User: What shape does this take?
Amino acid sequence: MSITIVLCIVIGFVSYQAFEKPALFHKLKHYPYAEVRENEYFRWVTSMFVHGDYTHLFINLFVFWQLGTVVENRFMALFGESGSIYFILLFFLSGVFADLPTFFQHKDNEVFASVGASGAVAGVLMAYVLFYPWQWFLFPPLPGFLIGIGYILYSTWADKNRQGRVNHSAHLYGALFGLWFTIAVGDGIFSDFIEMMMHPEPPPFF
Assistant: This one.
């Protein structure tokens, strides 16, 4: 069974348990105020396993399942057995890095908290874009590199404009870390990306 599927199962199970047990939800969420005062830095990891509601959970798991298996296989092809380690690091470090801005910004805020695997999934999304920049998405019907650019631009704008209750900075910094990590771990990944960008591919659905 792939690492992606295992993570989807575990995240789904823990999130369901947290929906049913509010105390568990509050113990696992990203809560900078407690992280500083109680040294509960484990929340940077555990917050990836709980979600705000079933819609939040479904979207994250669906995107991760769709893209994660592809990225995982790509890492395995590039790095052999070490590929699984790189993939796990990509997921979890993207999620942790995604929480750092709000940690420093809200460490004295008794109210702020956030949950979800969105930052980790964003890191996987950006790895996918680097590997397959001309792979067209069905929704929206755009090639991967435009999805990636649009994702970063929108997350930057939304973070500055405080749109709703969504932690857009987690999306942004998870995505940026995913880009950096994927380029950093493999020689030639960025040059291969540039080479692929020089050869546009038409959408398969026209």
Summary: The chain has ten helices and no strands. The mean pLDDT is 95.
